[in-house]
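Action item from last meeting closed. Structure (93 res):
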């Protein structure tokens, strides 16, 4: 029960390794949770976040805006800007 609770927490709130999840699924029968998480991930990936920059950056039409966003992404990766501030600035573009 403890392992199942830990695994569910990793699926929904952590960065669970897919290979590890497959192993745990065979013994814990948690495919239902993996399926739910996959649905949430699809919806979340539509957001313009620092973590999925490659998925949406090509949609930016203005080259100057694209350069601004890449500069902000560099600041986030170096720790000079928070991801929340990045998201606020992107929403303004």
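Sequence:
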């Amino acid at each position: 029960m403890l392992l199942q609770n830990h695994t569910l927490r990793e699926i929904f709130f952590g960065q669970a390794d897919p290979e590890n999840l497959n192993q745990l699924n065979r013994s814990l029968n948690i495919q239902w949770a993996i399926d739910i998480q996959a649905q949430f991930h699809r919806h979340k990936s539509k957001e313009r976040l620092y973590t999925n920059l490659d998925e949406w950056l090509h949609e930016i039409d203005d080259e100057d805006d694209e350069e601004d966003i890449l500069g902000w992404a560099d600041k986030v990766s170096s720790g000079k800007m928070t991801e929340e501030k990045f998201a606020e600035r992107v929403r303004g573009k």
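Note appended to the action item: Residues 2-44 form one domain.
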